[in-house]
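User: Before I run my own analysis I want an independent prediction to cross-check against. Here's the chain; please return only the structure tokens and, at the end, one sentence I can use as a sanity check.
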Amino acid sequence: MSVWDDLVGQDRVVEQLSAAARAARATVLAGRGGSAETGGNASLMTHAWLFTGPPGAGQTTAARAFAAALQCTSPDLELGGTPGCGFCEGCHTVLAGSHADVKYVRTDGLSIGVGDMRDLVLRAASYPTGGRWSVILVDAAHRLTEAAANALLKGVEEPSPRTVWLLCAPSVQDVLPTIRSRCRLLVLGTPSAEAVADMLVRRDGVEPGPAHLAALAGQGDIERSRRLAVDDQARARRADVLRIPLEVGDIGGCLAAAQRLVDTAKADAEALAETQDAKETEDLRAAYGAAEGSRAPRGMAGAVKELEKRQKSRATRTRRETLTVALLDLLGFYRDVLALQLGATGRLANEDQRPALERVAAAGPAESTLRRIEAVLACREALERNVDPLLAVEAMTVALRAG
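Assistant: Structure tokens:
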């Protein structure tokens, strides 16, 4: 399976990246003294790329596929094949995250610090060990602190001849103007429900009917659609969230719904901590050679403190992401309500919830639905400003009741 097959409904992006990968191969061959006649144009390749698009559209997937194509060693390339076969050692190691010349930058916390970015800029100055390309993929580039972004700018301004920066962010506005002006921009679109449903049928073996409903409910988010199609717990949590519009008839119902939503987010964070945090702590102790019950080796206390800080930040991010998904489900619900009230003929994202949608739509005017949508958006903004989650969600549910 080609690395490009993971990009759902992004034919234009695949075409651009494939052409750039061919041009990159031509550059490598020319540098080795070989033939550069691969059908590529050197101007199609550049040292820095910015991948943007709506949540779940596949920015990181596109960047990873491009990284694999740059390292592809398929023998079919000699016959004019497209880089990114998905089977060669180069493609396989990149997709597995073990390629020596491809560095993934992720964060479990809320931001990427300047220390990490300075290390990457130094790494970017080195020549790739395999002689092809040194690729640095920054997932969630919008989480860079101001100092980290300035450090990244240094690397992007003065690139090594064989270094490629791949930055992923929700939108171009989330990246410093000085950085985005030095990147080639690729905007991914929201994949159609049909394309997502087809992927679920082909790759996950989901029946066509459930696959279509999951694709609609996912609202263009591929991973969200997959979870709804194959994970019973994800479907149960979505159904729980979509009961909220029917439960805010009184103040007691508002507060109970808010508490349940926040408790669910907290449970998700705690479930992750039970497995991941314990393993990280155990691995750290093993790295320092700390025996059970013995005195901690020198330097370990500081490392443990730093690890606990990262784990706490990750728990906060997990709670926020869980709440964000719930709020997106609510937004989709009220958008469908508004569509029914206005007599729109488009498809509903929550077709499986049509009786509830019709009940809420008949209970009030479209103006009330718009105010409820604004209340959900206001809750999202409050969470981004680090307002206490319970207070933010309680304010939202009370506003949903008022309409």
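Sanity check: The first strand starts at residue 48 and ends at 52.
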